[in-house]
Amino acid sequence: MDKECKMIAIDLDGTLLTDDKRITEYGKQTICDAMEAGNIVCVSTGRAWPGARKFAHELEVTAPVVTSNGAMIVDPVSEEVLYDLKLSFEDAKQIYELGLQVGVTQIVWSGCQLHGSRMDDYLKDYSKRFGFMEPIVIDSIEQLREKGVSKILWYFPEPEADGYLEKVPKELREHLNIVTSTPFFLEFFHKEVSKAAAVGMVANRYGIDWSQIMAIGDAGNDLPMIRMAGIGVAMGNATDDVKKEADEVTADNEHDGVAQVIRKYFRI
Hints:
Elements: E1 7-10, H1 12-16, H2 25-36, E2 40-43, H3 49-59, E3 65-67, E4 72-74, E5 81-84, H4 89-102, E6 105-110, E7 113-116, H5 121-131, E8 136-137, E9 151-155, H6 161-164, H7 170-174, E10 176-182, E11 185-190, H8 195-205, E12 213-217, H9 223-228, E13 231-234, H10 240-245, E14 248-249, H11 257-266
Helix pairs in contact: 2-11
């Protein structure tokens, strides 16, 4: 290959995982082969650690895992939290109160604990798919003032997350990082949170430069790391804006797109 990559940053949902939320045997073997060849594999996901743990352990990765879109980095072996950038509580409070006005179900992560604004089908669905843990319903965001809030997610019943961004006051939009990881999810983070920033921190631990990283993803929250990487890869099922900015478009998540592009460039 033209560029000597030493690290692979891989998104989970819509990328490494199939639509029924599993890793294929071919995909698993490819990642194992890449690590055995001396490459660093960094899982980089919008999921919080409880929702990423199963897959990190299944892959047997040892490099720190980027979770919550880059708000938290976790050592997958010891499960020690290496980095945790929370929202300011005033921002968290404003977002939460606005979500109550909009009437949307809100998912609130405080550290590795899942909370929700109300117990309904959307919170139950999120917990089942992304948390693997029992959510705690809160009566007020004030309950989390002491522990802090890593991210707030609005879960819409229809794929309209992008359209609701305009309901967020301009002054709040300007000093937050707000992303849509799916058309149903609008997610709020500290301004400095991104997959690119967190993947860069992991790379620094190994003395690896961005030019030596392949980043693979499918959605808008993957764009920062895809733009920065030496080889930015969009899945075949990626959004058009991700495909437009990627260096390469691989097969979709139902046809081992991750494994195909890794084997193409790393010759394993």
